[in-house]
Amino acid sequence: MLNPKTHFEQVPLKTVKKILENQAARENAAVQAQAARKAVSEEGLSAIQERARTSFHAISHGEA
What we know:
There is one protein chain. This protein has one helix and no strands. With about 60 residues, the protein is mainly α. The chain has one domain. The longest helix has about 50 residues, at about 15-60. It starts with 12 loop residues before the first helix and ends with a helix.
């Protein structure tokens, strides 16, 4: 009987689980970082818009 040959190295299940856990942790960290950047970006935009409204109000009422 012929021995089947594989073209890949067999890796212990424990090692595969560890790799997948690390990958999932990195993906979660990336998603959280992206959400944080978006929140900071939106806060910055809100602050800029508020300053623009305040400046426009002051200029339009001669309060500069």
